[in-house]
Design a protein that fits this description.
The structure holds two protein chains of two kinds. Chain A is α+β, with helices and mostly antiparallel strands. Helices cover 40% and strands 21% of the residues of chain A. Chain B is 20% helix and 33% strand. Classes of the chains: A alpha+beta, B alpha+beta.
Chain lengths: 267, 162
């Protein structure tokens, strides 16, 4: 390999990929091969500020494009803010009202360009912090499932009633100790609890103990979104006080229906 | 790839009828935020899907703008860009086709770009001469993406007077 030829070719290629084109009075667009993930190239210009000082700037484009998918106020807090501030500091970039720039007072244009490019690319990485939160449909599914089961029992037990988010009207008018669903007929009521995390299981354990303390006669049933996600110690305490548990809502429809039928019919 | 949208699904989302809400009032007026203007409006499609139109425009350079149609899948907080009408403030390169241009351009979500490693799902774009202002880009989005409105001028003013 002829290193001199390679060097020359390399320099020609690099230089050709960076172009400067005049776009207005004392304003030049700087074209570079550097792109964001969507194929858009970094927006960079060389321009003069109001004091006649030249600067390499993004003209506010980088922050604007971050708000395509991220709320602007979320860029000013938490990890996103830390990443942005660290990137600006590391590369000597200033920000004024969303514009990222490096003044050419003390830095050569080449250095300023590469620093700005590095900074913009690092800052644009905050878009990867966009969290995908898939909302759980567990409570919604719980309600649907229990309503279906209760309705299927109704023909046999005409006096059956069921209420969601129940609390004792006299003992607990503020609703501090609630039951996700209470199924009642002439016999012992069934208290159903929808359980999706450690906190909820802890709360329900306390609620059941509270109902026992009040001398209430009931059957307690815990239905988990996924019992495997509950920590052992929390689950152990809950198991001591709960009459019946279903490890998952989905896939247990028939068993739950059969159990609740028996529980209600036999009281 | 559970979240992949096929080209047919993308096309169906784009052609789904979307009605701009009549009572879209000052909430839609653009706000200035950190060097750019913002405005957005949520739409429900005739098939029940949720969409949003977002408008962004540089406060200093009006040709630096973006008018975006997003799709919000049910039960998620994920917003996915179906179409994006960009101004002329940067070059664009289609990473698969390897063509580069400097012009107003329209990004479109495609199945191919979703499948390609290192590409953004809306990474494909075509340059256009159909608009040269943000206002005209909004018109193009409305025309291309089955958005209906009763009074064009009134709605544009409410949208922020881009």
């Amino acid at each position: 390999m002829d290193i001199e030829h390679t060097k020359k070719e390399f320099l020609q290629k690099v230089c050709a990929d960076i172009r400067i084109v005049e776009e207005g009075v004392n304003r030049y667009r700087v074209f570079t091969p550097f792109t964001f993930d969507d194929g858009d190239h970094l927006a960079i210009t060389l321009s003069q500020d109001e004091n006649g000082v030249w600067r390499i700037t993004d003209e506010g484009h980088t922050f604007m494009r971050l708000t395509y998918l991220i709320d602007e106020k979320d860029l000013r807090k938490g990890n996103r803010q830390k990443i942005i501030e660290a990137s600006l500091m590391r590369h000597g970039i200033k920000e004024e009202d969303g514009e990222l720039f490096i003044s050419l007072k003390e830095v050569t244009p080449g250095d300023a360009l590469f620093s700005l490019i590095q900074g913009i690319i690092q800052i644009s990485d905050v878009s990867y912090l966009t969290r995908e939160i898939v909302k759980s449909t567990f409570y919604e599914d719980f309600r649907t499932q229990i309503t279906d089961i209760a309705n299927s029992i109704l023909p046999q037990k005409r006096d059956l009633t069921f209420d969601f988010d129940w609390s004792h009207p006299k003992q607990d008018p503020e609703g501090r100790y609630s039951v996700d669903c209470i199924i009642r007929d002439s016999g012992r009521p069934v208290f159903l609890f929808a359980l999706n995390n450690d906190d909820k299981v802890r709360d329900v354990t306390i609620n059941i103990l509270h109902f026992e303390k009040l001398g209430m006669d009931f059957q307690s049933v815990g239905i988990f979104e996924n019992q495997e996600n509950i920590s052992r110690s929390v689950l152990a305490r809950f198991s001591d006080v709960c009459d019946k548990q279903f490890s998952q809502l989905s896939g247990n429809e028939e068993r739950m229906s059969s159990y609740l039928n028996r529980a209600i019919v036999t009281g | 790839m559970n979240n992949l949208l096929s080209d047919t699904e993308i096309s169906n989302l784009l052609t789904e009828q979307k009605q701009l809400p009549r009572l879209f009032r000052p909430l839609g007026t653009r706000k200035e935020k950190r060097g750019h203007y913002e405005s957005e409006i949520t739409l429900t499609g005739s098939d029940g899907h949720t969409f949003q139109i977002r408008y962004r425009q540089n406060t200093r350079y009006p040709t630096d703008f973006s008018v975006i149609l997003l799709y919000q899948p049910e039960r998620t907080n994920i917003a996915r860009i179906l179409r994006r009408y960009n101004g002329k403030s940067h070059e664009h390169t289609n990473k698969i086709e390897r063509n580069t241009f400097y012009n107003y351009h329209i990004h479109t979500m495609t199945e191919r770009y979703q499948r390609e490693d290192g590409c953004s799902e809306d990474g494909y774009a075509e340059e256009t001469e159909r608009y040269s202002t943000a206002e005209e880009a909004i018109d193009c989005l409305i025309e291309d993406c089955s958005v209906r409105q009763l009074n064009v001028n009134k709605q544009l003013n409410e949208f922020g007077g881009a």
